[in-house]
Amino acid sequence: xxxxxxxxxxxxxxxxxxxxxxxxxxxxxxxxxxxxxxxxxxxxxxxxxxxxxxxxxxxxxxxxxxxxxxxxxxxxxxxxxxxxxxxxxxxxxxxxxxxxxxxxxxxxxxxxxxxxxxxxxxxxxxxxxxxxxxxxxxxxxxxxxxxxxxxxxxxxxxxxxxxxxxxxxxxxxxxxxxxxxxxxxxxxxxxxxxxxxxxxxxxxxxxxxxxxxxxxxxxxxxx
Length: 223
Known about the structure:
Layout: E1 9-10, E2 25-30, H1 36-47, E3 50-52, H2 62-67, H3 69-93, E4 98-101, H4 104-117, H5 123-137, E5 145-150, H6 153-163, H7 173-189, E6 195-199, H8 209-220
Parallel strand pairs: 2-4, 2-5, 3-4, 5-6
Antiparallel strand pairs: 1-6
Helix pairs in contact: 3-4, 3-5, 4-5, 4-7, 6-7
């Protein structure tokens, strides 16, 4: 995917869905430190959405994974896949408009794929993981709108330092660059939902009224 300077983007084939009374399901995607949780909180406050956040704190393998990625890659990813499937089932049963912080598609197409390509997950584990993921993926309802947050690696590294999560501090810059490449490739082929893209390293919707207006008017087309 070639990142365009004209942000935000409503992709040309992405048109708002005609149903105005249907319960809406929005999803926010993007790499570590792209600003997903902040945007979810902002949109929840603005539009009275029910949030569903990524279960990072509940993952019993995550700290071990950051210390020994090869040893814990498969176990950590299977945990995330299972937890994310549970979240999707909760989303399906919710009668409120909802928004999700990172999706199950990203778990597989970005993070598990990156671990496999980096030889941190062996082929046998990867193929088992993909078979499980694809079985789950095929029965899920896709979002009514996928919101993709692009953020350059330099800004991501700065944000990681600022928020001070111990287990994230030693993430190599090359690992983050590879994640971003996979994100760009994935969003370029994603076709299950309309997509809008915001460049969060160039926007400040909290204090800049123009940026806030751009985000709100773009998303409201799909609400």
